[in-house]
Amino acid sequence: MASYSVTPTLPDGLSLNTSSGVITGTPNQPAAAADYVVTARNASGMTQATLRITVNQASGHWATLPSMAAQRSVVTTAVLQNGKLLVVGCDGSWAAIATAEIYDPATNQWGPAGSMGLGFRDLASTVLPDGKVMVGGTTIAGPTNIQIFDPSNLTWTQSGYQAVFFSIPLSTLDGRVVVFSTQGFVIYDPSTNSWGPIQFVWSEGIGAYTATRLMDGRILVAGGGTNTMLVGQISPLKTSYLIDPATNAMVPSGDLLGYRSQHTATLLQDGKVLVVGGRSNTQTTLATAELYNPSTGTWSTTGAMAAPRYGHTATLLPDGKVLVVGGSSPTTSAELYDPATGAWSSTGGLNTARAKQAAVLVPGKGVLALGGIEPVPGSNGGTTDSKAAESYLP
Description:
The chain is mainly beta.
């Protein structure tokens, strides 16, 4: 009677039947081409055969990546000019994780990216014209010095400006940066390292809104909630505004069709903006979606998702569709929005259920989802901060 063995170990998800020599199973993550030696033995001796196995990632599915060094439930990312990915974030208990990490798609490995000296949450980032990265956020200690990361030497410096809570830096078409906070907005000029005065101070502090740069350079600010959100009392808004960075003018634009906070906003290839999910003024989790038309300044309904969600991500894919994943009380659910039809369809689910994660399109790697919160097995609804990462191939 023959027996079979294989070396090295087969890719995860494949197995060798030691009695029949048959390899079965479905690989659950990509693997580079490698040689595997199958050995058959019986009373008369042994023989060997070499197999070369390559596991390619299937379109519409997720592949597990190496985990980050730290658990991060509040995360921002920036694709650097060298193609690597900067990741910054802290945990859900406000713990000051001041460190940052860099993912290299070429090697599929993580490495350190220095320390900001102060932990952030409610993070956002933008890449500056010289390749440096501006990162803003919130600290429990109060005002936050917005930080600038230099990829050439992995160092962090303070920008010289303090924003109070929920700061969102957003690059303009001319290379300047509009930084939003619960106070209003201010413009930073990297070429002179100078800050302008605060503009359009909100009548009451707001957070959890979205700020989206339109194709003509104007910025759409949509939804959000009043300052009571900062102490956990959600009071969503349905207002939207247009900012012209060239003049610092901020004017109302048509109201959203419904109250929203903690939603996503994605600039589509046709110039419209897709707003998805979030929480309503009745604290209902939303599945609905809306489209903003910059040429008319109006909002219209479009297809609703199959699953209501907030704390999700929405990523524009190269084919113009939008990938929405995770959210709520974490889920593996993922959906695709097709602007051509206004309809949603399901796609491959995450390997790790997530909410409050980051997701970013990385050239040559697909969409990376990382961090956030994930379920604690057997805890009946408990969650923990995640350091897991995975990639989606459109």
